[in-house]
Amino acid sequence: MKLHQLEALVASADAGSIRGAARALGLSQAALTRALRELEANERLPLLIRAPEGITFTEHGKVLLTHARLVLNQLEHARNDLERLRGRVEGSLTVGVTPWITLTFLAETVRLFRERMPDIRLELVEGLMAVAQPLLRDGSMDFAIGQLQPGASAQEFASEPLLTYESSVMVREGHRKARARSIHELLDEDWVLNFTADGEADLLNYLFTRHGAKIDVRRIVRAQSVATLQTMVEQADMCTWSPTILSHVPPYGGRLRPLALREAFEPRQLGIVSRRNSTLSRAAAEFIECLLLVIRRHARSAKKEDLALFRTLDLLI
Question: Domain locations in the chain?
Answer without folding.
Answer: 3-70, 91-164+269-315, 167-264
